[in-house]
Specification:
Belongs to the GHMP kinase family. IspE subfamily. With 284 residues, this protein is α+β, with helices and mostly antiparallel strands. The protein is built from ten helices and ten strands. The protein folds into two domains: 162 residues, Ribosomal Protein S5, domain 2; 105 residues, Alpha-Beta Plaits, CATH 3.30.70. It is 32% helix and 28% strand. The chain binds 4-diphosphocytidyl-2-C-methyl-D-erythritol and adenosine-5'-triphosphate.
Length: 284
């Protein structure tokens, strides 16, 4: 049977770096919200054993593609736990809409959707907590996509507390450059000592992203994009970039600005969602 699954994008509505662990990873305080915009995965569970991506990416070898890495991880784990046998297989196709290296979490989201969907299709019976722990091996943002609820996150993003920020309309814009996460986390000038605050305190204060200054300094196009957007609405970087978002109370207001966008800007309008489209699909 062929099934289709949403793989939504996320925004980091704020992102603060409060320290660095001994292993080099950065301690964050961030607020995740999903978008009603994302990729669509088509998955066919088979009994032929193989895990196949029918729509390979030009930019990523199959071996490294998070779709297949997530599928392999679940298969190995479920085989070891004797929840499936070696004949469990799957074929995947994806309609990719989320720009890569954009700070919209596309790779993590694809991995989460694969874990959740195969857990259902292969009837592995793992809990969301177990899937999130597995997913964390693939990327820091996988757990929030599995959890499916907007969340305040601490640690490297693995300690999640459900949150319900306003579901605003966003103009999300891509400046045409791809920014690797390690390039930003490795920058000497990055602010790494923002004091930790409670969620209540954070919700009451204006929201920022500690990666923004470094990204604006290193990537002129991101700076130009923010200068342009800030004329119209409060705007920030998401994740480690390259995408930025401007927030609006209505879809019409966001679309009016979209129409004014210069040609070099790729942009779309989407709504913030506190329950992810994947979560909604699961409860159908
Ligand atoms: C910053 C966020 O975009 C917030 O949503 C994500 O936490 C980044 O997640 P991601 O792109 O999936 O990043 P990962 O693949 O987990 O990590 C890539 C690299 O970034 C650095 N990294 C990542 C996350 C983190 N909290 N501290 C780090 O220092 C590490 O060098 C790591 O090897
Ligand atoms: N299925 C996939 N979709 C997107 N990227 C993938 C996938 N598989 C592997 N990757 C690799 O992972 C990298 C990071 O992808 P991703 O889209 O998660 O980053 P991002 O948008 O910067 O998000 P964030 O930094 O917020 O996690 C890509 O640049 C790509 O090389």
């Amino acid at each position: 049977m062929i099934t289709t699954w949403p793989s939504p994008a996320k925004l980091n509505l704020f992102l603060y770096i409060t320290g660095q662990r001994a292993d080099g990873y950065h301690e964050l305080q961030t607020l995740f919200q999903f978008l009603d915009f994302g990729d669509t995965l088509t998955i066919e569970a088979t009994q032929r054993g193989a895990l196949t991506l029918h729509t390979p990416f030009a930019e990523v070898e199959d071996e490294n593609n998070l779709i297949l890495r997530a599928a392999r991880l679940l298969k190995t784990t479920a085989l070891a736990d004797q929840r499936i046998d070696a004949s469990a297989g799957a074929g995947f196709s994806i309609e990719k809409r989320i720009p890569m290296g954009g700070g919209l979490g596309g790779g993590s989201s694809n991995a989460a959707t694969v874990l959740v969907a195969l857990n259902r299709l292969w009837q592995c019976g793992y809990s969301a907590e177990t899937l999130a722990a597995l997913g964390l091996q693939l990327g820091a943002d996988v757990p929030v996509f599995i959890d499916g609820h907007a969340a305040f996150a601490e640690g490297v993003g693995e300690r999640l507390y459900p949150a319900s920020p306003p579901e605003k309309w966003y103009l999300v814009a891509h400046p045409g450059v791809s920014i690797p996460t390690p390039a930003v986390f490795g920058d000497h000038d990055l602010t790494r000592d923002t004091p930790r605050r409670s969620l209540n305190q954070l919700m009451d204060e204006p929201w920022h992203n500690d990666c923004e200054a470094v990204v604006r300094k290193r990537f002129r196009k991101v700076d130009e994009l923010l200068v342009w957007l800030l004329e119209y609405a409060p705007s920030r970087l998401t994740g480690t970039g390259a995408c930025v978002f401007a927030e609006f109370d209505t879809e019409e207001a966001a679309r009016r600005v979209l129409e004014l966008a210069p040609e070099w800007i790729t942009a779309f309008v989407a709504r913030g969602m506190n329950i992810s489209p994947l979560q909604k699909r699961l409860s159908e």
